[in-house]
Amino acid sequence: MNKIISIILFLLLVLNHLYSQDFFPPDSVNILKEVPIHAKRKLDLTGSKVIKLDSLVIEQKSKENLSELLSENSTVFIKSHGKGSLATASFRGTNASHTKVSWNNVNLNSPAMGTVDLSQIPLIITDDVTIYHGAASLNRNNNALGGLIELNTKTDWKKGIRLKLISAAGSFSTFDELLEIKAGNKKIQSASKIYYNYSKNDFSFYNNDITDGNKEKRKNADYSKKGFEQELFFRINSSNIISVKGWIQDSDRGVPGLTTNESGLNNNINREKYHMLVYSAEYLNIQEKSRFELHHGGNYHNSDYLSKNFINGVGYLKVIDSEGKSFSAYNSASYKYNLGKQTEISARLNFNVYDVNSFEKIRAEGYDTTRYEGGLTISLYTSIIKKLRLGILVKQDFYNKKLTPFVPSFFSEYYITQHLILKASVARNYNLPGLNDLYYVPGGNPDLLPEKGFSTDGGIQSVISGKKYNLRSEISINYSNIKDWILWRPTAMGYWTPDNIEKVIAYGTDINFNLNINFAKIRLNAVANYSYTRSKNMSEKFGENDNSIGKQLPYIPVHSANLFSQIEFRKFFFSYQWNYYSERYTTSAAEPGLLTSIYPYFMNNIGIGKELIYKDYFFRLSFNIYNLFNESYRSVLWQPMPGINYSVQLTIKFR
Amino acid sequence: MVTNYKLQIINNKKITNIFSINKFEIWNSGIVYYLKFVIYNLLFSFRTGVFIILLLFLNSCMKDDMRPIKEFNTSNKGVFVVCEGNFMYGNASLSYYDKQYKTVENTVFLKANGIPLGDVAQSLTIYDSTAYIVVNNSGKIYMIDVNNFVYKGKITGLVSPRYMQFISPSKAYVTDMYSKCIYTVNPQTSSIINTIDIATESEQYYRHSSEEIVFCDKYMFTNSWSYNDKILVIDTETDKLIDTITVFKQPRKIILDKNKKLWVLCDGGYDNSPYQDKSGIVKINTGNFQIEKMFELNNSSISSDMKINFNGDTIYYIDRHIYRFHVNDNELPTTEYINSGNKNLYALGIDPYNSDLYVSDAIDFMQSGVIYRYNANKECVDTFEVGIIPNSFVFK
User: Pick from B1, B10, B11, B18: which is nearest to A464 by CA?
Assistant: First the structure.
């Protein structure tokens, strides 16, 4: 019995929440990004699993993209085709199209694909990364069946000029240059960011997937990305704030073939180019009891995909020349009113327009379509008794002239102590088919219905802190039942086509913790995550030989875990990053074997560095080793990943 | 020591109130000691350091590709089942079925050679004692011994090869989906000899692909399937394109009957695509390249395969169900020969030795398919599981 109690105690000890934290003692010289501390949990987060990624981790990875950050430091599963290549995210066993990513309330998901390529989102363009799991996203501008990743920029209204310069060089001719300038006063603030990332990415690997295989260099995997971001904030008076933000990016990358390809150097050359422009304008009015927000944003996205082969006597012959243009406009108005200290009501109106033009020049076919979406969300959060908080949220949306399923949801949390919270939520949700799902030629299915989900989650969140340490943790369990799940499958014609399959059930558990210790001039920070995910097709059999019922969906690992830790002593620091994915299957029947599954992998990265502070200047030099044990591993079938590799990074900050 | 601290906490009499805010400090203080202990150990204990390093190295024993080699020796008559796999998944495989003992061995190429077959195995051709496997999206043709499946050579540097047929031991034709040409290759030297230009016309949708190959007299016939509606005629003496015959959209399969008539199965193009029309079967006179008959098929299902028996007088095709008719019939059959039930039939094969019919169920095209073997009385004599998307049967 004692043993059981001690195990329970230990588990409770370990529970906590990954929040931005104040692990630097107040007297220490700290010119790292200031982290706001939520003295009190926000009422509208009642019952929700919301994780704000550790600012130290974001700072460490500021030259990387969202894909690296999430795959190494969250429970969100990232399916990546390699560095710089397509990377999509899935939450708790749901699809990549069920994950929404927004930047200052502008959705970055492609309205055509429904997904977002996380390798195209550099971390420099955001100050915060907040993850809303499942029903927690209903409360935001972009609700998602799986989860929402919100990227936001903000200002601290500090006076004067602040500069940040990051310059990094790494193996395989990889260069990252970033510059950030912030300036302003209490009334007006500006932030400008400019960046350039390039990598030849021609790492060596041993190709044992072909006969006479040998050590070879990865071809056509290069990538480059350049962009500029500008933010302007105006504080008209203490209650009125206007902000305008814009972000433009150009990227170009090769799409490498499989290791089994032997069509030759001049064949099977695939390239992808993206141009995007995202802007956001926001008006905020804060009164003593109310908060009013008005937002308009747009996302213009242009992509080109070209595939060509060299034919003797003809020259390069295009096989695919596909152009996708999309424009999405997002508009919202929301109003929140506090009825006393412990009750708030809010209402939000949304209206979005999507316009997609997709055309393939060789086959001479494509589609051009527009969709309108909008809706009303009303919520009420209250604390009836001191230890109990309740929330109810209802939402009714429409698209074109159709109503989406009505969304009711309930949230609750109970404070066992001030440091230990029990949470539960239950919600309906839906996801509209992407425009490619409906209209893509060939394969689009105009008869697709929206996916309808029912989800419930519960969890325990705790914070334990003393003078010298701080431990936050959260354990949650989740269950969702998604009807009319959209699944793309190949057909006898060779192309793929989507259908609504009857039902998918996804359930699992996430565990997150974050530990900070300040002890004898040593600072230790550790962030660990584990997730167990089951996601199963529970539909009727597709035919008498169908073996896919009850099987784990393709590319979703059952177990995944990661750990980031950093020890700092006299401005020297050592960081260690570890992550793990269990076996992933690629067929609908979850068949094991070399041809159909991807073996588990562990990845270890380390970094060492030194910080130096001189007057208003801050210098940080770091050296990182990735894939420390030179593992050969894969994230996608027959796509090699680099072995051990290095980078050196210099960060200079002013003020 | 850890245990001691835990016991200390548990033995505290006020343990029952541990969750109340007031008593929280008691629990707290225990944790502080516990954490201090852990930190001391982590940071300053040499033993712990060694242990951590050992743990890290344990990580590195990752299960890399385990590819044990298996030896085969199959002298009996058998059937190769080509499983094309999914595009860009590299999960193509080759299965071998022993007719006499009714046993199947899957992924024989991988097992015999320790390497994967590649991405999209489109077809297999046997010539002498060598099987030539055309791996479409890997741009190559692998050669293996028909009895022990051991690798003998490869022809690489092809764009998007589809089918291969021999005209002599040193000359074979290889069709291609994207290169707008047909390759002539020398299998003895594994080299490409020449390319035959087939991009003679220009019109919308004209993708100039080439697919299956049928020889008749001095002519080679091939169907231009992808976004096309042509049968191409090539003079094998000059290796020039000499004529084209317009059929229904997307001619998918071609066969030659005992009367030297060419039969063409057209799938009609893609749903919701501007390039879509009727599907059907076309009969062509190989002497004057004229169409003799055009039969329309039901457009609601996908017509995926058509084969002829060894005598060249009975044609079998899949149009959801399996149908068969005699080459001299004037109408297509209205009732099916074998009903597909709820299976997703994809490929057909007719055993030249005993006329057994082999049919594949590709299920959802994303998992291992199943083969049904029927005798001449339509009795199912065996079923077995193979690889992903079984697309053809080749009889040894």
Answer: B18
Interface test with B, best of A207, A311, A599 (most B CBs within 10 A): A311
| Contact B380/A at CB under 8 A | no
Pick the residue from chain B with its C-alpha nearest to A469.
B32
Say if A594 is an interface residue toward chain B (CB within 8 Å). Answer: yes
Classify strands A147-152 and A99-103 as parallel, antiparallel or unpaired.
parallel
Q: Provide, as residue numbers in chain A, all residues whose Cβ is less than 8 Å from the Cβ of B90.
A: 209, 258-260, 595, 637-638
Q: Which of B34, B157, B362 lies closest to A264 in CB terms?
A: B157
With contact defined as beta carbons under 8 Å apart, do A452 and A502 qualify?
A: no
Measured distance CA(B194)–CA(B190) in Å, rounded: 13
d(CA B147, CA B38): 63
How far are the Cα atoms of A202, A457, B144 from residue B344, in angstroms, in the given order?
43, 39, 30
The fraction of chain B above a pLDDT of 70, given in percent, is: 81
Q: CB pairs below 8 Å between A and B: how many?
A: 256
pLDDT digits (tens, 9 = 90+) for A616-647: 999 999 999 999 999 888 889 999 999 999 99
Could you tell me if A15 and A417 are in contact, meaning their C-beta atoms sit under 8 angstroms apart? no
Q: Give the CA distances from residue B363 to residues A561, A586, B125, B344, B347, in Å, rounded to whole numbers and listed in that order.
A: 34, 16, 25, 5, 12
What are the extents of the domains in chain A?
2-654
Does A453 contact B at CB distance below 8 Å?
no
Comparing C-alpha atoms, which of A422, A425, A342 is closest to residue A386? Answer: A342
Task: Say whether A211 and B115 touch across the interface (CB within 8 A).
Answer: yes
Interface contact flag, B115 A208, Cβ < 8 Å: yes
- By Cβ distance, the residue of B178, B205, B363 closest to A543 is B363
Q: Which uninterrupted H or E stretch holds B306?
A: strand B303-308
Q: Under DSSP, is residue A85 helix (H, G, I), strand (E, B) or coil?
A: coil
Contact state of B363 with A542 under an 8 Å Cβ cutoff = yes
The answer, for B210 touching chain A at a CB cutoff of 8 Å, is no
- The superfamily (CATH) of domain A2-654 is TonB-dependent receptor, beta-barrel domain (2.40.170.20)
Q: How far is the C-alpha of A175 from the C-alpha of A156, rounded, in Å? A: 30
* CA dist., res. A131 & res. A50, Å (int): 6
Q: What is the pLDDT along chain B (396 residues), one digit of tens a residue?
A: 333 333 333 333 333 333 333 334 434 445 555 555 555 554 444 454 454 455 554 454 455 566 889 999 998 889 999 999 999 999 999 999 999 999 999 999 999 999 999 999 999 999 999 999 999 999 999 999 999 999 999 999 999 999 999 999 999 999 999 988 999 999 999 999 999 988 766 555 566 889 999 999 999 999 999 888 999 999 999 999 999 999 999 999 999 999 999 999 999 988 777 888 899 999 999 999 999 999 999 767 788 999 999 999 999 999 999 999 999 999 999 999 999 999 999 999 999 999 999 999 999 999 999 999 999 999 999 999 999 999 999 999
If you write DSSP's letter for every residue of A562-610 in order, what string do you get?
A: EEEEEEEETTEEEEEEEEEE--EE-STT---STTTEE--EEEEEEEEEE
Could you give all domains of chain B from N- to C-terminal order, each with its CATH number?
4-65 (no CATH), 78-395 (2.130.10.10)
Asked if B367 and A589 come within 8 Å (Cβ–Cβ), the reply is yes
B178-214 confidence digits (pLDDT tens): 988 999 999 999 999 999 988 766 555 566 889 999 9
**Residues paired with B393 in a beta bridge:** B81
Contact (CB<8Å) A595/B90 = yes
pTM of the predicted structure, to 2 decimals: 0.88
DSSP string, A356-376: EEEEETTTTEEEEEEEEEEEE
* Interface contact A418, partner B, CB < 8 A: yes
Is B55 touching A (CB cutoff 8 A)? no
